[in-house]
Amino acid sequence: MSRQERKNMINFIEVMKKADRESLAFMTDADIEHLYNNVYEQMMIQQSL
Prior knowledge:
The chain is mainly alpha-helical. It is built from three helices and no strands. It has helices spanning 3-17, 21-25, 29-48. α1 (3-17) packs across α3.
């Protein structure tokens, strides 16, 4: 993943999950992508209710 993609995913996770940037900074790209996908999926489910 590019640096910009990672930055965008981290920003999204911070806003949606109230996660702190410091803890996210130590995660691997795969961890960030997995967390992003889970948060995004939860958001889509909530919007469809």
